[in-house]
Amino acid sequence: xxxxxxxxxxxxxxxxxxxxxxxxLFTAMLFFTRTSxxxxxxxxxxxxTSNSIVINNNRFGEEEKDKFTxxxxxxxxxxxxxxxxxxxxxxxxxHELSLxxxxxxxxxxxxxxxxxxxxxxxxxxxxxxxxxxxxYSLEHKMLDRGVKVLSAKGQKAIDTALKADLVILNTxxxxxxxxAVLKEKVPHVLPKVLWWIHxxxxxxxxxxxxxxxxxxxxxxxxSHTTAEYWKNRTRERLGIKMxxxxxxxxxxxxxxxEVAEDSVSKRILREHVRxxxxxRNEDLIFAIINxxxxxxxxxxxxxSFHESLQLIKEKKLQVPPIHAVIVGxxxxxxxxxxxxxxxxxLEKKIQDRVHFVNKTLTVAPYLASIDVLVQNSQARGECxxxxxxxxxxxxxxxxxxxxxxxxxxVVNGTTGLLxxxxxxxxxxxANNIVKLATHVERxxxxxxxxxxxxxxxxxxxHMSHRIALVLKDVLQKAKSHST
Length: 483
Known about the structure:
six-stranded parallel β-sheet; Rossmann fold; 20 helices; disordered N terminus; seven-stranded parallel β-sheet; single chain; 13 strands; alpha/beta; 483 residues; 2 domains; elongated
């Protein structure tokens, strides 16, 4: 009560400063923990998909799998599951250093390993020729946290790879680094390589990227769907066999959970964002939070939204005004596609109901301000979709495509509603929008169930436990090979 009273007092006295401070804080916190925007992104009600690890040759017995899946959050005094990595030398190789999903997720792992005393070295294989503000900033943030940053080429990179206890390649494209830099030393390094794959797109299946994949210690993938896709695709298209493959679901950072569970912060952010959008507190917001691109399905979402407005009007339903918010706009990157979106809005005369927000890593204010998250990724869907579990942490129901990792997160009818991908999903999504707009209690219940599901399996300690099991196994293999 004392903490809440203090917040209220500050709000009344220093409203503008508080808003500025909050937004600055969230920017700093989420700068390293947000990985949903470019995430590569089995019905989730079945017991099979609740497992958090899949290994091709089934080395872990069912008892071990169950123990792994049902990770119990222990007290702060309990040992960190990654403590065994203390003093280990870990080389992280990323194909790029940017504000996209893969690099930020690898940075998050770097900080978790540094937190237990591991020696962590970072290499970026593809860097812009000219000085880049994003690369400069991210590198210095890593240096501040004790992560060493090396050039991708040169003897230091080779020596570090040979000395390292563990080498983690991030994304399929990072595989180009092996031959380009290590050359004849590649066979010496492969037995201690863990390949962390996030991609779902077909153009990543090139021999020059993944020809060494069968010979590494293991592959770690974010969802069962993606793991199965890689297994089948590499066999059928490239004629190679996947190594032992681990499925590790991601988890929300402690920082994001603190914001999601602070009712006062959420209320302040909700009011501020809605005011900036020109949306009243009682209106309903359905938002899609992804980098704007055709693969993320913003165009189909807008068609569904327009259709839902027509349904409400035709059936004369009594609902608050509903709005669509698209967070992730970048006219410079997707000029043609974004122009299509805006032309559609103008053509259908719904510009007072549709709001575009520029791409940002500070998604907490928007999660605090909306009522429903729409995860409309197309084709094979998201590899995992970090934004989905972040929205569930904010007690938001999710309307998602029945594809990819979303099916392993959202329990259809319980924590959200699923619809088909592609054009076939436009009308079902419109119907689902109307369902949640007209049933307040159902919307709130789904949000609560989603939050409970996050607390059960999608927190940072859960992810740490899952990754710890993988790292232990890979280290044991590397040790066995060396002896």
